[in-house]
Amino acid sequence: MTTTALVTPAAELVARRVPGRSLEAPFYVGEEFFALDIEAVFARSWIFAATEAEVPEPGDYVTVTVGPYSVIVVRDDDEEVRAFHNVCRHRGARILNEPRGSVGTIVCGYHHWTYGVDGRLLHAASQEPGFDPTCFGLRTVQVRAVAGLVFLCLADRPPADFDDFAAQVTPYLAPHRLRHAKVARQVDLIEHANWKLTMENNRECYHCAGHPELQRCYFPLYNFAEGDVPPALRPTYERFLQADAAARAAFESLGLPYAAVEDLVERPTGFRVEREPLDLAGESFTEDGKAAVRRLLADFPTARLGHLGLHLQPNAWFHCAADHAVTFSVIPLAADRTLVRTTWLVHADAEEGVDYDLDALTNVWEVTNEQDAVFVARAQAGIGDPAYVPGPYSPTESQVEDFVRWYINRLSAYLQEGP
């Protein structure tokens, strides 16, 4: 079967994208591209939706909104994570209207059609003889749980590379036992910028001088080649070399995989995973680098294990230390507004006020997120200025280029294949 490529102003902009330079303004400010991003990227990719710790018991649910789509992520009575479109099979009413909660059954508040947490229609009053409830269960959404992280795909035929992604990242994630963690805090931040600016900002540390709290514990050497490290960062680089050698020895002694695995551009489920040292005490994302939680996530013999970093195209990144983990999800709300949801996970039995101080646990990333929100809002304002023209990426922004290439590939595939 042949398909006809869609020829639109958006398609022309996609086709003329110049490698190594930022995207043209319409990609960030135009309503056409916002709608295209939802359909071509978010509705066709595996996206990070939640952690299993957010739905620990049968009947626990969260709702996830992506453009016009609303999805229920729920744990069923067999303790499996399920996902359904949040649309009643009667006349289409939204069923669950809260961001999270717990239910015995899923009941539409309009005409009280009632569904099990497995999606089956259990009750629909006043139907004609012969009505078959098995034909009116909730419409399912593809969902996968990987080492405690929940991913969903809205497409009927999701990208087939997810099994390979899961197989490669599970050995890195599994030692942290995220499936058995609990949520210590979750913070939603609205950034006044396009979602791509949020993701691009995360993919480089060219701007990390603007994160003094993070720079205390995190080596700001992201994507620097040895010969490109500026003089001001040479002392930091020398500390990194010493910490890296010690960290590699520790990882190997514990059998923890640490080598970088990177496939960010060509595959639909682009990702990068690596275990690296942290600065100062080397234990956690705190201002002194010491563990913020006395009870570690798993049975690690030491807290000095740096951090595991995972990036996923198009909407997530993760940091796992020995004592806690932090997940970040990015959801487009409008062409110039983006939801960044940050979730801190700790051992299920860790007690606030006993094993950890909540503010000390979350401070570094909360402050960093707020700083990033300012940076991307400034970028959005500048890109909306008629004087804006795409500028060149520096060598340390190679993963920004990787993200943009991945994004252009996804749009090109959609425009070639059609909806």
Automatic annotation (TrEMBL):
It comes from the Bacteria. Its cofactor is Fe cation. GO terms for molecular function: 2 iron, 2 sulfur cluster binding; dioxygenase activity; iron ion binding; monooxygenase activity; oxidoreductase activity, acting on paired donors, with incorporation or reduction of molecular oxygen. Residues 46-152 form the Rieske domain. InterPro entries: Rieske_2Fe-2S, Rieske_2Fe-2S_sf, Ring_hydroxy_dOase_asu_C_dom, Rng_hydr_dOase-A. Pfam families: Rieske, Ring_hydroxyl_A. The keyword Iron applies. Keywords: 2Fe-2S, Dioxygenase, Iron, Iron-sulfur, Metal-binding, Oxidoreductase. The keyword Metal-binding applies. This is Aromatic ring-hydroxylating dioxygenase subunit alpha. It comes from Streptomyces triticagri.
